[in-house]
Amino acid sequence: SRSLNLAVIPGDGIGPEVVAQGLKVLNAALPQDVKLETKEYDLGAQRWHRTGETLPDQELEALKGHDAILLGAIGDPSVPSGVLERGLLLKLRFAFDHFINLRPSKLFPNTATPLAGRPDIDFVVVREGTEGPYTGNGGSLRTGTPAEVATEVSVNTAYGVERVVRDAFERANNRPRKKLTLVHKNNVLVYAGHLWKNTFDRVAAEYPEVSTDYLHVDAATIFFVTQPERFDVIVTDNLFGDILTDLAAAVTGGIGLAASGNVNPTGDFPSMFEPVHGSAPDIAGQGKADPTATVLSVALLLRHLGHADRAERIEAAVSADLAERDGTARTTDEIGDALTARVSG
Ligand code: IPM
Ligand code: MN
To answer: What is the reaction catalyzed (predicted)?
Structure first.
């Protein structure tokens, strides 16, 4: 029989609460003959306070042996900004070469959004995950003086840009609308912009059925709000993708519904699935967090591992659950149970 050997990083704040619900739904959604094994990793703010460690080599090695990783949320106000982001989350994305940061946006029924009632919104942002301004390639001169100069260099390699652009064309080609939009800022960021646009145009020639478009990132933010239905697949760099996907979440039902996958399509390393939202320490431990984004991330995980039918079952369960929400407050657990019941039934 088959097996799924899953690493679980519950993390901080509401992370453990939403991950528990994600695992419940995963158990219900998996085919009978797939044996689920999970191993929990104690990483995040508490671990850092206790030991000063963010992601020791030994655990990084152990994580490599899993089929996939499910992560709740990382971050706490008691930890200096950047420590866990760089030392844990980004370290995992870089070490496991998660060059595809997949962030679908769909307007689910009955969701509180400024765009409620609009025509179907269903697009996916393919955010580059290993380059751009996230590489930590910068520095500071005369630090702390009135003459301080800080640089934060955006790294864009032909190899890195081509592989994410190719992945995005493949995805667009496999969707009914077959449309791909490149988002950048090539009127100002001319060197990186040139590399992205040239690569995009060159690969486009191999996909005659995919219609293409280009938008500057500032213009893209306008269309996300005024004409989101124009998008199908979007490919963009790491930082633009970070910002655009928070906006996408906000306009399509809120950050409580936004799922993401940090994917290494080659299979050389485990891919990692996580809700786009953070650890929300203000509501942690109160059973108030909506686990839906984590549940939808579990669907992405299943699709990545070849269980597309099971992923669809989860997405249908979420759709049905949202359609029947009537504004009555439900606990994290209650939402998880309702979704589990729908997936099992
Ligand atoms: C995200 C987050 C991270 C990012 C932070 C926490 C490093 O905002 O997953 O979008 O910027 O990628
Ligand atoms: Mn972000």
So the answer is: (2R,3S)-3-isopropylmalate + NAD(+) = 4-methyl-2-oxopentanoate + CO2 + NADH
124-150 pLDDT per residue, tens: 999 999 999 999 999 999 999 999 999
Tell the CATH topology of 1-99+269-345.
Isopropylmalate Dehydrogenase (3.40.718)
- Fold category of 113-252 in CATH: Isopropylmalate Dehydrogenase (3.40.718)
Q: Which atom of ligand 1 is nearest to the CA of 74?
A: 6
Residue 171 is assigned to a ligand binding site = no
Band (294; pLDDT cuts 50, 70, 90): very high
Which region among 94-103, 217-226, 249-258, 276-285 has the lowest average model confidence (pLDDT)? 249-258
Cβ–Cβ < 8 Å for 260, 274: yes
Q: Which tens digit of pLDDT belongs to each residue from 180-208?
A: 999 999 999 999 999 999 999 999 999 99
Q: Which of 41, 134, 237, 321 is catalytic?
A: 134
What are the structural domain ranges in the chain? 1-99+269-345, 113-252
- The annotation status of 127 as a binding-site residue, yes or no, is yes
How many angstroms separate the CA atoms of 187 and 170, rounded? 27
Helix (H, G, I), strand (E, B) or coil at 205: coil
This prediction's pTM: 0.95
Q: What is the ipTM of this complex?
A: 0.99
- Alpha helical stretches, state H, the chain: 15-29, 45-51, 57-64, 83-84, 91-95, 158-173, 190-204, 217-226, 238-251, 292-304, 308-323, 332-344
Please determine whether the domains at 1-99+269-345 and 113-252 fall in the same fold group of CATH. Answer: yes
